[in-house]
């Protein structure tokens, strides 16, 4: 399992278009990819292959997310998602 922390760099945060791109990227990998955001002590979790799940994170610009990938290509998957989220 690979886990990385990333700060959302997109000016509008994870809005619909950005979330759709994350889904598109995640679908290119065999690993399962999960995004986490801490919201005042409550950990929110999203499947990176589900646009609704990602939108429910409500990750604004500057939010810190944890990207967790688990599978045969986990390192590449986590790197790709983090690179995109940085903006």
Search tags:
alpha+beta, Histidine-containing Protein, Chain: A, four-stranded antiparallel sheet, 34% helix
Note down, in words, how this protein is organized.
The chain is an alpha+beta fold and 87 residues long. It has a single domain (2-86), classed as Histidine-containing Protein, Chain: A (2-Layer Sandwich), CATH 3.30.1340. It is built from three helices and four strands; from the N terminus they run βαββαβα. It has helices spanning 16-26, 51-56, 74-86; strands spanning 2-7, 32-39, 42-47, 64-70. It has a four-stranded antiparallel sheet. A hairpin with a 2-residue loop joins strand 2 (32-39) and strand 3 (42-47). The longest helix has 13 residues, at 74-86. It is globular, with a radius of gyration of 11 Å. It starts with a strand and ends with a helix. The mean pLDDT is 97.
Give a short synopsis of this structure:
The chain has three helices and four strands. It is α+β, with helices and mostly antiparallel strands and 87 residues long.
Beta-strand fraction estimate: 25-35%
Shape: globular
Radius of gyration over alpha carbons? 11 Å
Sheet/helix structural class: alpha+beta
Total strands: 4
- The helicity comes to 25-40%
Low-confidence stretches: none
Summarize model confidence as the mean pLDDT: 97
Domain count, please report it: 1
Main sheet record: 4 strands, antiparallel
Measured between the Cα atoms of the first and last residue, the distance is 24 Å
Spatial order of strands in the largest sheet: 1-4-2-3
Number of helices: 3
CATH architectural arrangement: 2-Layer Sandwich
CATH superfamily: HPr-like
CATH fold label: Histidine-containing Protein, Chain: A
Q: Could you name the CATH class?
A: Alpha Beta
- Strand-and-helix sequence, N→C? EHEEHEH
